Amino acid sequence: MKHSAHPARRQCGQASIEYVVVTACIATALLVAGDMPQSPVDALTAAFKSLFSAYSFALSLP
To answer: What domain of life (predicted)?
Structure first.
């Protein structure tokens, strides 16, 4: 019976493939424009700008 020298290598490869698949699904969901007045990418950008604005305001308080 021969044991594999690096059984964890196969798991790392599987994790990489899972990461690529999930990332591709998220990127596709963001790039597909539906019947929305604003694209998902624009909505995400606006949300980050709003969050940063609120964060910087909170940091500027004494």
So the answer is: Bacteria
Question: Given pLDDT bands bounded at 50, 70 and 90, which one contains residue 53?
Answer: very high
| pTM for this predicted structure | 0.46
User: How far from chain centre, in Å, is Cα 21?
Assistant: 11
Return the number of other C-beta atoms located less than 10 Å from residue 30's C-beta.
Answer: 13
C-alpha count within 13 angstroms, C-beta hemisphere, residue 18: 6
Q: Which sequence spans correspond to the domains of the chain?
A: 7-60
Distances, alpha carbon 38 to alpha carbons 31, 44, 45, 46, in Å: 12, 10, 11, 10
If one counts every other C-beta atom within 10 angstroms of the C-beta of residue 17, the result is 10
